[in-house]
Design goal:
heterodimer, A: alpha+beta, Ubiquitin-like (UB roll), Fumarate Reductase Iron-sulfur Protein, Chain B, domain 2, 3 domains, five-stranded mixed β-sheet, two-stranded antiparallel sheet, 9 strands, globular, B: alpha/beta, Glutathione S-transferase Yfyf (Class Pi), Chain A, domain 2, Rossmann fold, four-stranded parallel β-sheet, 8 strands
Chain lengths: ~350, ~300
Amino acid sequence: MEHFYLKVFRYDPTKDEQPYYKTYKLPVEKGMTVLAALFKVKETQDPSISFRYNCRAAICGSCSMKINGHGTLACKEQVTKLLEKYNTDTIVVEPIGNVKPLKDLIFDFDWLLEKFKQVKPWFIPKEPPPADGTEYRQDPYDHHKIDFASDCILCASCVSECNALKANKDYLSPFVLAKAYRFAADSRDGARRERLEAVLDHFNLEWCVRCWQCTTNCPKEVQPYESIIRLRIIAAEEGYKTPGERHAEIFEKDIKERGLLNEMLLPIRQEGVLGAVKRAPFGIKMFFKGKVNIADFFGGHKVKRHEEVEKIYEKAKEKEKEVKIRIPQILGVVYEDKRKTRKRANFLDKGGNE
Amino acid sequence: MAELKYAFYTGCSAKGVAPELYNSTYLVAEKLGMELIELEAATCCGAGAVQEKDEFLSLTINARNLALAEELGLDLLTICNTCTVMLRETKFKLDNDPELKKAVNEVLAEAGLEYKGTSEVTHFLWEVIDGVGLDKLKEMVVRPLKDFNIAPFYGCHIIRPVYLIGYEDPDNPKSIEMIIEALGGNPKDHEARLACCGFHSFWSAEDEVTLRLTAMDTEAAKEEKADFMVTPCPLCHTQLDAMQEEAEERIGTNIGMPILHLPQMIGLALGMNPEELGLQKHVISTENIINKITASV
């Protein structure tokens, strides 16, 4: 392919009533990034086009935009790879999703920064620094728990297709919650409850739909999803009663007592009698469609060999305190073909020191 | 051809609110020459909920599920996206962390079990493509779905996160479209193709998040004039089908988008009876599909 088309979202609120798309034809050059392509357009075809950029090396986080439907950094994506990946001759660039476009590819970041401030995204020490003048020390496992969440460059690529934010603009958004986690989980931090309350006040932990889109978009392998889930765990550990915790208790009890989840009795157990009344029309609808297993109303059947589960349950509970579960760190984005290659992840800390 | 024999992990939904998925999977698998040995001793995967409350317990419970497949010397086959990601996550963590694997095996030993890591976790969708093969599937079609515009709905956990799933590009998956084309149907691209159904946010967030997503997803398929949506996940199905009317009420429009399970769609093209496949068990009426399919013969 000698040429490709760069289809650019254009919008100038001082002139345009509606955004529109303008397409530019460019030669395909090996190694050219989408950001380089935008420069080429600006220099040779249309100086009016506006976009944010700075470092051109995936460090500053300025050039986040939606490229063929997915939020990412324009300086990190290569034209030839995209043309191949989407099997197309056209690359579509738009401002990231879920935010207000200001001009062309530039979007309103202030709105996100206001959310960001709420979780106090800075270190608030639990105690004064060591008297001997050394730095704050941290156990390697404690550091491991926050290491993956520390690399956020605030590019907001994760915001672009966040499903919870798409449904509700009050959602704090993934990178904000990742930052809340990074500090709330820091063994040296003294403002855990303040941060958790800022997050729980907005019911934001429950709004996450577990879609893993944020982690998929993140160009820096920050794993906002993992951070949100771990914030929920910390909230429960700190004694906050959340619906999530109640939900988890029901699942755990069902596994312990019968093996499979009793979906039919879940509403009444989750939400009490009021919940059951609210769900009654739904239950009746499901019953008449033949989707209800009557046995479930009487507790349901146990899976075979359930005695094994009981033994495992007891032993796991006894042992869990001594087990250190490591969080996979995603190193390097690799996707090639079918099941053979994955985005590599392993358990080594990024420095390679284990 | 390799023998298509799998340790079949049903998950809770197919045994609970989606019996039509359970039945249609067996019917279609048999027709496609897949032998399913049901893991009747398997437990719930925890669906992320148990993982939050007790990570180690959820790992050991799922290690047991995997060990049950290993006992049979077969790969474990799921029909639910969330079961897939949960079991693959367990496998990933245990296979990459010898200390954790040792700790888990010490617990499993109490019940006389061991996790070795010899069975893969795969999904019905992938096995139709890699096991059965699209050429063979195409040959078996007796009732091409040529009159149907079909909107694929992948559901999150069959494409993301790529380090656990990795079957295809999460930004541009094609597997469901490939199957639709093999069956002679017209895949319809739509806004919500890779979106979330909303199932996994909590009920307390129903008004704020869940039902809004359900409405957006089904409307996106309607905008492209799809006859139905198809999904490989029973949780997406429950959300998009059984909760669609509630979603309509909240947003005040009428959507009426039928949702089919993947095996149901395959079964229709293979000439099976819609009733046998359980199409009448859906909350959103599938009457138009049934009429069209019976008229096409």
